[in-house]
Amino acid sequence: MTTATSSPRYQVLPGPEGLLPPSAAAMGVVLPQDGEGLVEGVIVPEAATYKAIAKAMLTRRNPTIFPGPLVVWGWTKHTQEKASVVLELAAEIPGVKIIPMPDYRPIYPKIDPEAVINPCHPNLTIWHNKIEACIFVGVHCHFASVTLKMVRAGTNCYTVALCAEAGHEDAMASLPHCDIEKLQRVTEALRQAKKEGLVPWALTPAGKRELAAEAEQKRKQRKAIATSAPTFAHELVAGLDENEE
Fold it and tell me: What is the CATH number of the domain that holds 50?
């Protein structure tokens, strides 16, 4: 087991760090082993990683979960079980958003940042939703690695990578080999933090005001769309006669 360190040469902190931040691995950050986690570039005991994740997701603005194809699509029974556990985790974070990354192909010419996160421009979704803490889960490692660097480069979002493989140096917090059992431990850490008196951002006066204003704005948008939608001609409403020439 790797010995935990207390004074990192390079800290992986929320940005924005700049247009081209250095790779954390190139700066000497190494990945944790089983029983360990990575927090801001420092290898720490696994239990400390759970606490860091819980604190970030409960106290930072607009916490969001970005599930990738490995949990969005029901490829196997295991995938379906893991997706259910991710939903249980989400239920412990008041005010949480779930914005999937269902596909890795570029989404052009326009994306809906409230519906999906585009791995080619993840900062757009984070900026639009004012996200300051997020979890990547079920995202293939090569895409997660690139996306995490882009997020750190241009946003102040605290990123958490719950990785099924070795973990991610460019996340602020990361757990390696994150199976269903470890996801359940993250969920329990969220519950425990609330029991100990940690007040979630969504339940603070500022959080309540922001979420209420956002809900009202979306209500007005839906109303505007409904009232401005074009009406079909009478013959289209009634249907077309297939026998008509």
Answer: 3.40.50.1220
